[in-house]
Amino acid sequence: MNTAHGIQSAAWLLVALPLFSAAVLLLAGKRADKWAHLVGAAVPVILFIYAVMLFFSVKAESKGNREINLHLYQWIVVGTFKVDAGFLIDPLSMVFVLLITGVGSLIHIYAVGYMAHDPGRRRFFGYFNFFIAVMLLLVLANNYLAMYVGWEGVGLASYLLISFYFDRPTAATAGNKAFFANRVGDVGLSIAIMVMFAYLGSTSYADVLFGNAKLTQGVAAAIGLMLLLAACGKSGQFPLQTWLPDAMEGPTPVSALIHAATMVTAGVYLIARSAPIFDVSQAARTAVVIVGAITLLYGCICAFGQDDLKRVLAYSTVSQIGYMFLAVGLGPGVYAIGIMHLVGHGFFKAALFLSSGSVMHAMNDRIDMRRFGGLWRVMPITYFVFVCGYLAIIGFPLATGFWTKDKIIEAALDKGGTSGWVLGICALAGAGLTAFYMTRALVMTFHGERRWEDDVHPHEAPSSMTLPMIVLGVASLVGGYLLVFGGGFQHWLEPSVGPSVEEGVHTVSPVVLTLLTLVVVALGALGAWVAFGRKPIPITQPVGVSPITTAARRNIYADAFNEAVLQRPGQWLSRALVYFDNRGVDGAVTGLAAGFGGGSARLKRSQTGFVRSYALSMLAGSVAVVAVLLAVRFQ
Amino acid sequence: MSHLLLAETAPIHAPSVAYSSLSPIFIVLGAALVGVLVEALVPRAERYAVQMVVTIGGLTAALVAVGLLHNTAETTVAGALAVDGAGLFIQGSVLVLSVMSVLLIAERSVDVGSAIVASAAVVVGSPTDRRLARTDRVQTEVFPLLLFAVAGMLIFPISNNLLLMFVALEVLSLPLYLMAGLSRRRRLLSQEAALKYFLLGAFASAFFLYGLALLYGYANSVDLPAILNASKASPKSDVLLYVGLALLLVGLLFKAGIAPFHSWTPDVYQGSPTPVTAFMSSCTKIAAFGAIMRVLYVGFNATAWNWRPIVWAVAIASMAVGGIFGLTQTDLKRVLAYSSIAHAGFILVGLVALDKDGIASVLFYVLTYGFSTMAAFGVLMLVRDADGEATHLAQWSGLARKSPFVAAVMTVLLLSMAGIPLTSGFIAKFYVFKAAFHVAAPLVVIALIFSAVAAFYYLRIVVLMFFAEPPENGPTIAIPGWSTAVALTFGMVVTVVLGIFPQPILDLAAKAATLVG
Amino acid sequence: MSAVISTAGELTNGQVPLGEAVAFWILGPVSLAGAIGMVLLRNAVHSALSLVATMMSLGMFYLIEQGPFLGLVQIIVYTGAIMILFLFVLMLIGRDASDSIVETLRGQRWAASLFGIGFALLVALSVGRAFKGSKPVNLNSATTNANGQNVNSIAALLFTKYLFAFELTSALLIIAAVGAMVLAHLERETPKRTQKEIARERIRSGRPQPLPGPGVLSSHDAIGTPALLPDGSIAPESVMASTPGVRELPALDNPDNIR
Q: Shortest CB distance from C115 goes to which of A612, A619, A630?
């Protein structure tokens, strides 16, 4: 491992600069309203320029020296346990840094236009810069503990941004939901870190990942499964997927940057980064694959039941990240493909979200596709960008998805055996379903007759919005090719995740598979066109549809399941406990209703506090303590 | 009846007293006595200023003394007191935080007088009461009372003798009972809180005493080392040992506010004057944990196998009660009270470790928690409406629009309590869990889950402050005077700095993690 | 329970002197009855007197257990001083049986009895078990009492082993004194009136005679009971408004309410 020198030593600026600007924007108060968005948007651009310079500096190193450690200071030292605050700059983190700052810059610029009339614009950019800072910390940290800092930070940023329009109750609920799912994941991550520490005595990547030989199967499986839980929470994977579609309540740039391009892929990063642990435990790896396969199909099916354009894209994100999980779960050699799809997805999903944001902008913030239609004439640029993204995601020949997604399908089939076939077919079916729901979205939004409500007068967005969209649109068309060109991307990642798949025995020959995939995709697209493109679309959801559609509309009952299995017992438990806490009852019953005049009412109520019931609870506790202690002693 | 007559007996030899090692205690007790004299001799007009000087001077001098003693490790006064690393760390923490509490009590610019009542003896609501409430008169006895309480807190965690520990417990509790009733606003609520605290505290003391008596019956001594030796070698049935320990624990757990002996906490925290609440929630808790640690580690080290399940159980109960009940609270002081219950559970997790790391992690945790909670209560003092402090959650909504700075400070403190990284709370939780993981992995997992639950209600407040619409005729943000500003800034800075550069204090805690038996 | 009985058996089967056993069996029930009565009796004065009975019995216990100093202190200090002070306060305040004894919390009594009995059983069984088989010893023998004397031994302990605890109790006393001042002492804010001023004022007030005392002519003389005027109506000025129990004075305008 190399130590940082030259320009690399300044990498701490990647975190410090946006953190500083976020603090300035958030604390500056109203007087900063005039220039806050300019500062906010300039920061990621500066970071991107620096990141490119950093990239070339890393590239200039010889291949074996591209893992660069930047030691900042000793964070915690307790006995033999040491945590350094430091960065690891290696090919994998460089990919993420470029993606985050690059796509981040474009979306920041887009947001300048998008948020132009929003009173909370300064706050928005403050949070957005904060997000950039913690996300970069997440990918640059050189140990799990520091990564956890970033991990919590992005969760917080996401929570704050989902609830950005707090006056909408749905936004507040969505924020809570995201928070819960993320906390479940965080517990997983913290347990994984604890287990690592307990068995390896360290949490730094260097010790954990090179010390993987010291791990037994069981311990590696425990760490792996806990990391997977964390990844599922953050990346909206089965069974913690329900928060991600709800998270679309946030402003569209948030959906594009956080809930499509970067943060939600942190789970993939985590698993790719922890590859050596998954190398030890086959069980954990299998779990990753299964989660990926289930989620990719789940996302596709749910996506075609949605009428809300952003939710379609959200489920599509769920499904595409399922592909990435599938890839990183398949094992050594496929990691690079997963990351490649991640980068490509970052481009085309951002393009799709930004263009859908542009549509929303034009349609007075309405997002129901049943009230769109025929927009391609009035919004040609948006249409162009959306189509670019569309072609990329369905894997149209030579567009990004064609290079990255097909490789995942190929790798799944190449796994061999029954499992290989099952996974391959899942992935293939997913490709067809993707084409189906994306075509449906495209047709319902941009083609067909105009089903607009009376008061909307769609128009093309301002250039501050369209320019970044065009860049992303073009990137999603040609980006995939640039990535796979000559295997450059995979070679670049080799120091981090090992060499890529060796061209060897294929279950199905690549040419046949490519053709097969194209046929499936074409069938999916055609099916959607037949179903939605040729006849008028009702402006209300038709009833009496097939059970699959109903299930898809209801997110395959995941929310209902959560409510019945998780939420209700939780509420019940909470209520039951509160019942015994007679003071708690006060709080629950009066709640917010007691309101401000509560001062005196509260005073009065409090005078009926019951010391005797407190004393009783203490007595009961004492009996329990004595009894338990005696029971333990004389068992 | 001849034995009633005084007869010639062997002369007794006075035990040696290491005056220098006990100097912090003597300094604080001396300052308290001076404070009482000040009450008697100094005219009312000057009393407040003089008391401030005496109190802060005494506490600071004691703190310096603790600093000078840092390498001491000895027992003194016939083994009744053990001055050692852990004890001194606890003493130092208590002293620093009590200086901060005094600064909060000294705040006179946000409310006329201070948060302390003008005259506690005046009937609530009487014309005199209303008249006095508008003057800047203050019941200045609060300062000597606080000093007595601090003296008790300095002795409590270094007592190796259970009888002395009991007297210290009473010395620290009695002033607290009184101070809880001295609120300037909502006096009935405050007096009720004081009475509740007193009654339940007496109840808990009775348990402590009963346990002490049974332990004496077992070990023929109330010295912790003697109890340890007896537990290793005594041929007697050890029923008494365990029943005694259980009852002793009840008394100690009560002071630390641990479920199921927590029920007083929310009411008392809510009713007491806020600076006193801050004092209770930080200093009392620290001292109580120091005592629990000493009892368990010095007196019952050999029987750890048997008491560990109890610590597990109460730790889980505490985290659950704090985490779940905290969710339904609508009053910020009660929320912080439940949070303190949950934190007590987390600290207990560290106690399970039973090694140097465990001691050090507990020391670090109580210190960081003390700073965060002290500062959080300090912030509470600033958000006010016509009735005094506006502690209802609804009144805090949209606070960030009025005062982004106060909201930001509160956010950092809440994040620290939630254990979000880059705050001291995270390092503390991590250290405690790390220490306990070797011996109690399932407990740590449960603790992690509850910390996730608890994080929800902290962040709920954050979201409320930043996102909710401010209420009409909402509270105003008072501009703090110098003393509150100093205390708040200090608490806030420590919370952040210990999150980013925790090393010096971690080293100090690790170095201090010795208990002399 | 068997443990307790077998322990009791040792008390009666000759290992302890007969006199001590007889005293135990007499005083035991008395102290227990006193303790129960203290909790159950509704009249505060009766309750306090029951406690006196218990404390006296305990003092006797200490005496027959060869702890004369402790026994006497128990009787003189606790029973003689503290409890009597208590009684004075009760009499002064004049609260009689008016305490509300309606239990408003559902299940409170039931649960309290359950846990109370459970706790008592648990501790009694444990203690009984612990002391099973232990032999009574003579506290005045040279082996059990090195100083030979009860009082001397206590003194020796107080000034050696428990020196610090003993000294620290002085802090407790100061706190208690300061606390009493804080809670009860009202400072004089105006200069004290001279006798001349008082007399002048009284004559001018049109009521030179003293105010009626509480309880005059009514069936009860507690401080909270207003006096009755000759016509049977009550004299509100006979009680202090701050006395507990007379807050709702206007509601007492019917003499029948005052028995």
A: A619
